[in-house]
Amino acid sequence: LKAQEYQTGEDDNKRIQHSARISKQINHVGPSQHHEN
């Protein structure tokens, strides 16, 4: 059970990092005015 919980945590971390990476790409592609925030 503990190993399963750990694996789930790993998956969550990867999902969070993936979402953050996508957000950065969207912000980077967005208008330059967006970077002033």
Structural class: mainly alpha
The parts where pLDDT drops under 50 for at least 5 residues are: none
Cα gyration radius (Å)? 15 Å
Number of strands: 0
Reported for the largest beta sheet, the result is: none
- Percent range of helical residues: over 70%
Write the H/E string, N to C. H
Classify the beta-strand content into a percent band.
under 5%
Mean pLDDT equals 73
- Number of discrete helical segments: 1
Morphology: rod-shaped
Query: What oligomeric arrangement do these chains adopt?
Result: single chain
| Distance between the ends | 44 Å
In short:
The protein has one helix at about 1-30. By secondary structure, the protein is mostly helical. It is rod-shaped and about 45 Å long.
Question: Helix and strand layout, with pairings?
Answer:
Blueprint lengths: L1 H28 L8
Describe this structure in words.
The protein is built from one helix and no strands. It is mainly α and 37 residues long. The longest helix has 28 residues, at 2-29. The chain is rod-shaped and about 45 Å long. The N and C termini lie far apart (44 Å).
Please supply descriptive tags for the structure shown above.
37 residues; mainly alpha; 1 helix; 76% helix
